Amino acid sequence: MAAPSTPTGPGDASNRSLKQLVLGRRDVQDLSDTEQELPSELMTINMGPSHPAMHGTVRIVLTVDGERIVASDVQPGYLHRCFEKESEYATYTQVFPYTDRLNYVSPMINNCGWAMVAEKLMGLTGKLPRRAEYIRVIVSEMSRMTDHLTCVGASAMELGAFTPFLYLLKCREWLYELLEKVSGARLTHSYVRIGGVGKDLTPNFDAELTLCLDQIVKVMVECESMLNHNKIFRDRMAGVGAMSKDDAIATGCVGPIARAAGVDYDVRKDYPYSVYPELEFDVPVGTTGDCYDRYLVRIEELKQCIRILRQCLKQIPDGPVMVDDPRVALPAKAATYNTIESMIRHFKHIMDGIKVPAGEAYAFVEGGNGELGFYVVADGTGRPYKAYVRSPSFVHLSTASQLIHGHLIADVVPIFGMINMIGGECDK
Amino acid sequence: MSAKVLDALKAAHGAAIDSVETQHGDAIAWVVRDRLLAVATWLKSDPAMAFDAPVFATCIDRLDWKPIDVPPGPPVYPASAGWTEDRPRFEVVYQLRSTRHRHRLRLKCAVPEHDARVPSLSSLWPAFNWQERETFDMYGISFDGHPDQRRIYLYDEFVGYPLRKDYPKEKRQPLVRRDDLPINPIKVPGGHR
Lengths: 428, 193
Known about the structure:
The complex is a heterodimer.
Chain A: H1 10-23, H2 33-37, E1 43-47, E2 59-65, E3 68-75, H3 83-88, H4 95-100, H5 107-122, H6 130-158, H7 162-183, E4 192-193, E5 196-197, H8 205-227, H9 231-237, H10 245-250, H11 255-260, H12 267-270, H13 291-315, H14 333-338, H15 340-352, E6 359-367, E7 370-378, E8 384-390, H16 392-398, H17 400-404, H18 409-419, H19 423-427
Helix pairs in contact in A: 5-6, 6-7, 6-13, 6-18, 7-8, 8-13
Chain B: H1 2-12, E1 17-23, E2 26-31, H2 36-45, E3 53-61, E4 90-97, E5 104-111, E6 117-119, H3 128-139, E7 142-144
Parallel strand pairs in B: 2-5, 6-7
Antiparallel strand pairs in B: 1-2, 3-4, 4-5
């Protein structure tokens, strides 16, 4: 029974060689008697599109040998809302609410990215009031913190650690409350405008944010003590889903995933924008590129965000929060109501949109997941001729199939948690 | 920095480059379609270029392109010039980045409507695998040599390419009609997809 059998046909031979190559396993008739009683063959199972352990709606068709994944097909698109098509029919200002819904965990950064591409086309880059630039950096860094807090907290929860999840989401809620006070909306802020920000910070924002950061530092000490040396957490994260430095570059990975693999790339340092050159912060870089390193990089980035925020609060100057340029700024309310010229300008501004000169530009910022860019082709009207978002989640998700290959089904959960696929951004 | 890259590109592959331009500091090179793969291979391997990191790939449909209030200066082909019938309708755009030199370059390929295909760059940069699938899904550009060219966001039964300018924004194509549900179970050709 255990003698090697000869292949019966060409299809059979190729099947067997593939199986032996991939699994190092023999055909059923080649197995010993005890092994034959429990023959196993490859099985196809669906994970998602809606699965309690998955972030967002993504479907993975897994081919498994027992518990081990031998092939997978990742299928995004269940949250596709035609961001790019809708943008072609909206004025530049009307696109801001759409960008909120891309990466809905860090909407302020998306707002800034969209404002920056319009400013680049209009030649306003670097001409914004300094207070506006500082406010943008403050709200961006707060958004980056909410992004990382959600990612780390949710991943810990999916591995069974519920307490850190509650603690970290409590911190996120403090930040959301502050952002709500500033912008008026808890989640979809639409706070940034082309040429500045919508309104100034609240009067005692300084004290509130300082208090909030002090509390977050305390909570993070607690969470780190629960997670960093937790045996279950480390066993599930360390060595899982590792990626080499060269792979990370070639597959277009950016942000914490690339940095965990040792790629020293951060848009804030490599292509500095806004007032980041005036701020002092470090870029954490990992060595192994596995899930545990991605976790550590995110934790360290949280600390760097706190450092940046504290510097911003010290350095932020007084002044206007909107550039004094009639092409992008609305006239003052009093003038709108009292002079016909301002009334007409206000009307044209709202109805026709901000006139962006013909041309094309690609502007990018460091989002929660890495380089988030907008590529816009303008034709001189108030609406973009073409808008494209370079979403880091989409690029990172394309590596997922390669990352989960050879791992157990249970390892899909931490790998996806640390890829931090945000459905809205990935599916556009 | 961008001018240096464009000069080197013109010196090495003069015949393959239609024109070069710089817009708002972004370097743009128009590449002849048949030579795109050769130029891209050189850009990746040459140590002075070292474009190791892909950024994005997409496409522009110039069907309704009628720019107004074009800024003064010499007209640049064809971004700030008007679109005419004899010009190719599509432009496929590849954005590249060099980790070592920190420079960036945008490659553009003019693609006519009746022959909407370009060579795939996914063998050089694996990130373009999905981005080319997305471009195929949204614009119907076919990528020669792509290992797995199928729709990515939309379902296989979708008719048309939604980001083309002649696809109406209000058009709806539900995969499953609500009134069909109890009678006809969903039949998807090709098994589990």
